[in-house]
Structure formats: structure tokens, C-alpha cells
């Protein structure tokens, strides 16, 4: 029985929901004036609070998880926490288009890691489609790339965050074969939030000195890009290859750039729109080749 039959709702619907949801992440971060580590921490811990009432239903599964899987879940959570820390901080120094365009390197890292760790092979056609999509994503942010000053710092932070989320995705693929999406997501978000909380304690950052607007942004980040974005992608890891889930994330630069145009007043050029179409074509061809079932 394939994934389509098991889930009743077509997987492309979940992919679209996830892409739209994570596209709002950069917008909400730019609306916030709180430190990146604080914003990321509350984003994750508030998600845990939203999920907590349902955790009791999974108590038998939780008690059966092996120590090795707990350690891998913790590692995946730490990687996710580092991703949020570095990527969200990058938006303080560079544009939404530039920062999210660098995230397009994620599927390359995941593709190589999936081959090394899981022996997953990818066809030549899928690799070529990936290259097409990445070229499109890079051109979305090309006009904003700068090679000096604060913008370069922001791009470098985004790159570190991209490596971290690729590791999170690879660990998650193996764990999702044995752990449900809810349990995996809950504890990954918890471990990630705790890493960020420790970071804030070490740096002496305040946990409470923020106006009501900031708490609203924290909650929006928890509900939209985390629950409807990252949680959905964690669920999809059981039914799709890690490289395929990573490829769909390439839709974020296009979605974030369009949202930034309407909500932040950032410019979007005709070249960026054409590049977005190229990106979508590449992603579609990759999924068709890589997920033949």
C-alpha cells in the first residue's frame, strides 16, 4: 500500500501546506525585535505547550523507545535548535531573499548524507532537476548577495544554520521509521528549545522583558511555521525520502520573497519571479523522478 492510500489526503497537499507555513517564518522573525535565541526558544517551547494535552495518548510508545533512539532524538533536536539560532540571527544582518536562498543548499547536504548514512541512491535526472531548482532559488536572492560587511555575516550564519537543519533532517529520517511524527516532533522541539534556553542563560539574556507584540510573534511562529511547517515535514519523512522533503523546502525562498514584498516592503524583480518559476519546475521534476511511487 503506498503513501497516498495510507494518508487519505494526497501528500502534495501536505507539501504545499508545509511550504506556505515555513515561508511565514522569515516574516515573523523580521517583525520581532527580541534576540534570535529568545524568539527561537519560545517558538519551540510554545509549540510543546500546544502539543502537551495530546502527549498522554502516546505514553506506551514513549516508554518503549530505546536509549539509542533517545540519544539520536536529542541530537536531532540540538541540530534543529542550532538551525533556528543561526538562521534566525542571520535575518538581522541580511535580507529575507538572501538568507532563504542560502537554505537551498540543504537538499545537497541531505542528498550526500542520505547516500553515506542510508545508501539511498538518486537518479541522474533527479540530480539535474535539483540543480535546476537550486539555480532558480539562488537567483531569487542573487541581487541581495553582498560579500562584505553585515550582509556577509548574515549569509554565513544562514549557511551554518543550513548545515544544522540538514543533520536534523537526516537523523529524523531514521527515527521516523520507528517513532511516530507526534512523539518525534514533541521531543525534538523540546530538546531544541532547551538548547536555546541554556544559550540564553549563558549569555544572560532576559526571558521576560518583552512587550505584548513580541509574545504574539512567538505564538505565531509556534503555530504557523512550526506546527504547520516543521511538524508536517517530520510527518512526511516516513512516506518520502529525506532528500525529497528537503527539496520541497526550496519553495521557501519564493514564498518568503513574495510575502516580504507584501508585508515588509522588500522589492521583488522580474528576474526573481522568473527564477521562482524555474525553481518550481526543478522541484516538480525532482519529486517526480525521486518519488516514483
From TrEMBL:
Pfam families named among the record's database cross-references: EamA
Domain EamA: 13-141, 153-287
GO cellular component, one term: membrane
Cellular compartments annotated: Endomembrane system
Record flagged with keyword Heme: no
Transmembrane segments: 12-31, 37-58, 70-88, 100-118, 125-142, 154-171, 183-203, 215-233, 245-264, 270-287
Keyword presence, Zinc-finger: no
Record membrane topology: Multi-pass membrane protein
Keywords, ordered alphabetically: Membrane, Transmembrane, Transmembrane helix
Family: Belongs to the EamA transporter family.
Name recorded for this polypeptide: EamA family transporter
Record organism: Paenibacillus silvestris
